[in-house]
Amino acid sequence: MVAPLTLAYAVSTVGLLVGVGVVMMLLNDDSATEHATAFRSLLIIPGFAAIAYSVMTLDIGVITVNGAEITVPRYVDWAVTTPVLVGFVGYVAGAPRKWIAGVAAADAMMIILGGAATVTAGSTKWLLYGASSIFHLSLLIAIYRVFPSFAAEHPRRLGLFKLLQNHIGLLWIAYPLLWVAAPGGLGYISATGFGLIIAYLDVIAKTPYVYFIWQRRRVFADEPTTTETLETVNMTPATDVSD
Q1: Which residue among 42, 165, 202, 238 is least crowded, i.e. fewest CB within 10 A of its CB?
Q2: Start-to-end C-alpha separation, the chain
Q3: Can you give the pLDDT at residue 221?
Q4: What are all long-range contacts of 105-113, with beta carbons under 8 Å and residues at least 24 apart?
């Protein structure tokens, strides 16, 4: 009989490969070729995660440190893919590169410190968790307080920005709460239960995310400039009100 976690990881791998297919459709669409480089980065999200989950399906990468088990591929996946997830929200908003890099770095630090907290004990565990939470709070502030000011300057992308903002924001609240309840935290849920929930959330966080972008890809097409708009107005025959 297949173990529940093995089955869940296998199903998650398939779900993430669907996300890879969605990104490939996006890259083959010529509606916004000037954004192709940014779109290619989206392959990292479901692609790297699919590799990580295929490794976990084979029960590779689970190690014990200080008596605590940690699934290394999961944390490597998060450290690589989640900065891209939050960074692309900033890209959709039209935020400067420094803000995109900053929120991605904050996300990476949140993951690294959270992983370190998993394999430590006592006050050190909760100090690391607290430090991770500070980075978590800082990236949420960037997503909800800073990025909207840039998104307002790109009205065609505003709907997609809000969709990705809330998709990430709500899920990023769930993950830390699960960590607290997991064996690496207070131990309220079993390792199997934690793995099953996380496998579901990881697919939900990634495959629908890239689908939303593909579905609304037309918003990345060039908006008419002020000059182009004025030229269009000037070329329109005037209507003689006396008629």
Answers
A1: 238
A2: 84
A3: 83
A4: 106/135, 106/136, 106/138, 106/139, 106/142, 107/82, 107/83, 107/135, 107/139, 108/79, 108/82, 108/83, 109/135, 110/135, 110/136, 110/139, 111/75, 111/78, 111/79, 111/82, 112/79
Buried b (16+ CB within 10 A) or exposed e, 148-165: eebbeebeebbebbebbb
Write out pLDDT tens, residues 55-91: 999 999 999 888 788 899 999 999 999 999 999 999 9
- Strand 68-71, strand 62-65: pairing: antiparallel
Please give the Cα distance from 165 to 148 (Å, whole number).
Answer: 9
pLDDT at 198: 97
Q: Note the pLDDT of residue 222.
A: 63
How far is it, in rounded angstroms, from Cα 165 to Cα 44? Answer: 19
Q: Average pLDDT in the 116-133 region?
A: 94
The domains of the chain, with CATH numbers, are 4-218 (1.20.1070.10)
Q: Supply the pTM of this predicted model.
A: 0.88
d(CA 71, CA 17): 21
Average pLDDT in the chain? 90
Sequential DSSP letters for 51-79? HHHHHHHTT-SEEEETTEEEEHHHHHHHH
Tell me how far apart the alpha carbons of residues 175 and 73 are, in angstroms, rounded to a whole number.
16
